Amino acid sequence: MATAADVRSIFENRLKENDVDFHPADLERTRDEKYLKRVLAHCEKDAKQAADMLWDILTWRKNVGASNINEDNIRMDYVKEGVFFPRGRDVDGSLLLVFKSKMHIKGQRDYDELKKIMIYWFDRVEREENGKKISMFFDMDGTGLSNMDMELIKYLITLFKCYYPYFLNYIIIYNMPWVLSAAFKVVKTLLPAKAVEKMKFVTKDTLKDIVAPEQALACWGGKDNYVFEFIPESRSSEHTPKKVTFAEQSENQHSLGEMLRIVPNDTIIFKTDNDEISGQFTITNMDESAISFKIRTTSPEKFRVRPSSGTLAAGMSQSVLIVVQPGFHLRTVTKDRFLVMSVQIPKTDMTSKDLADIWQSSPSSKIDEYRLKCQFPEKDLPKNGNLLDKVSEKDSLSNSLNTLQVHYELLNRDVKRMKIFQFLTLLFSGVSVVLGYLIYNSTSIEDRYCERM
């Protein structure tokens, strides 16, 4: 029986013959026993086929720059819209990667950027799940014809089929409108026989057979009231563990080896001043060299951060002001978090491009991370807000528009049929009149001929 060692041996021999410069992170996959077993299982224990697939995977990853795709070089505005996001698990314990079809309109976004975002989520989930299988969840509820993007769906299927081995558990299609059923018949033709068996068409009533109510979103009839908000990936598990500041530190405590001292060190205290809610903290460079810092949050749309990035010479400090944007329910803001990251740089007067290159090329072990919570005075927390109402209102309006679109398409089809029927009726009526006239005229001539006889 073929083994991972057999696959690696065939691949390495081919690599010696071709001398291709693959990304170092991708070459690590060829040394990962678990990953090679996934490729082998995907190819039904055929070592030669598995080695070919491994070569194709690394070639594809090199061509698309998959290992360099991260939150700094993808369209984060697309990501934060929540078209794709992981949430919940199926009955086998596999993570659900959700595609909210009604939030995607074909041709409205840059397709190449969408592909990068799909690769970002596949790579991130693969890391976070340690290569375990996931289920692709197509949420088709409220979907209209304008949302159906076969090119995008084909690309998703291709990722599972060719570049992420033994990674698919189920393809779950939820509440698919009957007008789109033909499209998924095309999808079936793209899948091998075993994968077709993984396709599960479910409704709100039958979803529980695949996804338990506790794991299903409320909009699917489940018990999970989760509303998507993007949280940056933590890559702390890779390489040497990162240094992270936690709440156990006292207000001004600084641990040796950490680049920054942050005051307050774990919680940003927000206050209300002239109807503006703001908080502040100070970062100090405790390192001997200059550093570059970045500040991220789980909900960028809710906060204005000044400055959100910058550089600090050794021993220098910087105050950071955070203001809550108007119109957001404070009870949702209290759950948000901030992440301060820092990395060593040779000098402070560097160009934006040079700084970006340093951030991108620095291994995760060289980047310090500090996590901060938010705290608001209890009296400032309103009992009622409008953010969730607006989200619900937006979803309701979107559903209504999509339903209206489906009805319009059906009505338009019926009108076309009616026009054809009317045309045929008029045509037959015209032919009947002409035939009647000819018959009548012929009869009249015969009668007049008989009279003369």
Automatic annotation (TrEMBL):
Domain MSP: 259-377
Keywords: Membrane, Transmembrane, Transmembrane helix
Keyword DNA-binding: no
Transmembrane feature ranges: 163-184, 420-440
InterPro entries: CRAL-TRIO_dom, CRAL-TRIO_dom_sf, CRAL/TRIO_N_dom_sf, ER-organelle_contact, Ig-like_fold, MSP_dom, PapD-like_sf
Domain CRAL-TRIO as annotated: residue spans: 71-228
One Gene Ontology cellular component annotation held by this UniProt entry: endoplasmic reticulum-endosome membrane contact site
Identification of the protein by name: Motile sperm domain-containing protein 2
PANTHER family associated with the record: MOTILE SPERM DOMAIN-CONTAINING PROTEIN 2
